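re: ur question from yesterday

yeah so i grabbed the chain u mentioned. its 225 aa long if i counted rite. heres the sequnce exactly as i have it in my notes:
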Amino acid sequence: MLTVDGRSHLPNGHSSANNYATLNSYKQINGALRHQHHRHMWIITGPAGCGKSSVAEYLAKELSIPYIEGDDYHSASNKEKMAHNIPLTDNDRWDWLIMLREAAVTRLSPSASSATKPHDGVVVTCSALKRKYRDVIRIAAYNDHQVAVHFIYLRADEGVLMKRVQGRTGHYMKNTMVHSQMEILEEPDQEEQGRDVLEVDCGPSLTQVQRMVVGTVREALADDS
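ran it thru and got these C-alpha cells back, copy pasting raw so excuse formatting
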C-alpha cells in the first residue's frame, strides 16, 4: 500500500517555511529499510470537524498503543485565538508542531532515565493543514530510520465539517474556523499519497470511518512485517 521511493524536501527547525534539503531517497526519510521492524507514528490529520480525536482514540485502543491529543500541546494564546475565531499563523504553529513531534518521539523512544516504556507505535492528532507542517513531523523519521511516519488524512467537504462543528458543545474551536482552515488547506498531492499519506473519506458514519482507518493501518503494518 505504501511506496517509499522518490525524493522529498524536509524543513529544518523554524526555517522550515522556506528552506528545504533535497534527499536522494525517501527510504532514508521514512525509515523504510525493509530488513528492520519500525516504530510507527500514525498522524491523524484534517481540518476541524473531520473526527480526528474520535478516530485516533479508536485506533490507539485497537492497536494498544499510546494516543497523543495534539490540541493539548497548543499554547494558551493559540487556544484563545482560535476561541475568538482568529486563525493561527505559521509562526503560531511552529513551536506547537515541534513539541508535538518530540512528544511522539519520546513515546516511541523514551530516554534511559524515563519511567515510560518504549512502544512500537503512537497515534497523534494534528491538523497538519499544509505540506510544510507535515514536513516538520517527517523530521522524526529523518532523525531515526527506525521510525516510520504515516499521515492518515480524513477528507470531507466543508459543508459536512461545518455541520459537525456546529453540533459540538464545550470545544474552543468554533464553526467559523472550519472555513479559515479550508482556505489554507493544502491537500496531500499524488507525490505525498504515494509515500506516507493514506486518505480516508470521513463522510460516512464515525463507526465506518473508524473501521476503515483501522483496516488501512493494519494493511500498512502488514507491509512492514
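noticed a couple things. The CA atoms of residues 40 and 221 lie 9 Å apart. also Residues 1-29, 31-35 have pLDDT under 50 and may be disordered.
anyway ttyl
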